[in-house]
Amino acid sequence: KRPAGAPDKSLARPVSKVGVVGAGLMASQLALLFARRLEVPVVLTDIDQARVDKGVGYVHEEIDKLLLKGRVNQDKANRLKALVSGSLDKAAAFGDADFVIEAVFEEMGVKQQVFAEVEAVVPETAILATNTSSLSVSEMASKLTHPERVVGFHFFNPVAVLPLLEIVRGERTDDASLATAFAVAKKLKKTAVLVKDAPAFVVNRILTRFMGEIQNVIDEGTPVATAEKAIEPLGLPMSPLVLLELVGPAIGLHVSETLNRAFPERFTVSANLAAVVKAGKRGFYVYDSGKPELDP
Ligand code: 3HC
User: Fold this and answer.
1) Which residues have C-beta within 8 Å of that of residue 145, sequence separation ≥ 6?
2) CA 87/CA 76 separation, integer angstroms
3) In angstroms, rounded to a whole number, what is the distance separating the alpha carbons of residues 150 and 172?
4) What is the C-alpha separation between 40 and 17, in angstroms, rounded?
5) Which residues contact 108 (CB under 8 A, 6 or more apart)?
6) What top-level branch of life does the organism fall under (predicted)?
7) 254 flagged as catalytic
């Protein structure tokens, strides 16, 4: 059955090469997923060779883990490793890519610049996708020659495990691009939902409201350990503050700032979270003994 709002799938264009801009945590998880499910070449790019090597290294390690767990055989592991490469040269890397997804720093100017650079080198029909957590897809596309090729393609951490994918239609996105996005999502075996191009879309809006209240409780003086304990009966798959570490405190802060700007009466920005990010900490826990312990 066609997902609500998805265009006719006959409009979808084939995808036989994928580009990933960025080689950080999210980007490298995406590279692995695309290679594994689409079985097409995937090229990661970033601003320096060390970052590119780290991203490709992560993908290779994850493939080794899949092999150890028996999820892929040796032959498939070798093929997957060969499909994923890294490059500093976007023109060479993306010149024949049909689908390029960006997962770079969450700042509109940076993302617009990335899309402009990518548009200059990709084929006319290539899709440009963004994994942004909260920024406007329409605004990101607005400076391009072909804004109709831009879609939001928002994954959740850990990418390999969580089934949901928010697909965002920007103001100018055309049916062929959206149909391609849905076809790719299906091959990735994700549950795609079409969401409006509104601040933080749907999931992060709900999650941020929820996480924001926990932060408020802590900001108002409740010890972190008490807040964590009190929430256990809700039966969440993991502690909200551990989830914050998984996502990255800087991303969490960025999303809450975006939402606070858009809906100041509904969203707050936690002083404690801002302090954690400013101090460059991983989160509310320290791992000095190898085990997570609350940062005193
Ligand atoms: N990366 C890759 N795989 C991971 C992983 C990670 N960081 N963490 C766990 N996994 C895999 C494990 O390898 C295991 O796979 P297997 O079945 O092949 O062995 C599987 O997930 C289950 O892991 P575990 O049995 O160790 O642990 P749990 O059953 O407790 O599940 C969890 C771990 C899936 C992380 C679960 O706790 C969970 O769902 N947590 C909530 C995650 C969530 O809400 N994410 C959304 C964040 S919001 C977001 O990302 C949006 C952004 O824009 C901010």
Assistant:
1) 119
2) 23
3) 8
4) 6
5) 135, 136, 139, 140
6) Bacteria
7) no
pLDDT at 254: 95
Q: Which residues line ligand 1 (CB under 6 A)?
A: 69, 133, 156-158, 160-162, 204, 207, 237-238, 243, 247, 251
- Distance from Cα 159 to the centre of ligand 1, integer Å: 8
Ligand 1, closest atom to CA 132?
53
Each residue's pLDDT tens digit, 146-171: 999 999 999 999 999 999 999 999 99
d(CA 122, CA 270): 41
Task: Tell how far the Cα of 238 is from the centroid of ligand 1, in angstroms.
Answer: 9
Mean local confidence (pLDDT), 272-278: 92
Q: What are the tokens at 45?
A: 């790019």
Biggest CA pair distance of the chain: 57
CATH of domain 203-294: 1.10.1040.50
CATH number of 9-195: 3.40.50.720
DSSP H or E stretch at residue 18:
strand 18-21
The pLDDT assigned to 225 comes to: 86
- Residue 138 sits at φ, ψ, to 5 deg, of -65, -45
Tell me which residue of 79, 179, 199 sits closest to 135, measured CA to CA. Answer: 199
CA distance 266 to 118: 36
CA of 41 to the centre of ligand 1 (A): 26
Q: Helices H, strands E: what count in the chain? A: 12, 10
> Do the Cβ atoms of 135 and 106 come closer than 8 Å?
yes
CA distance 176 to 171: 14
Tell me the domain boundaries of the chain: 9-195, 203-294
* Separation between Cα atoms, residue 172 and residue 164, nearest integer Å: 24
Which residues, at least 6 apart from 291, have a Cβ–Cβ distance to it below 8 Å? none
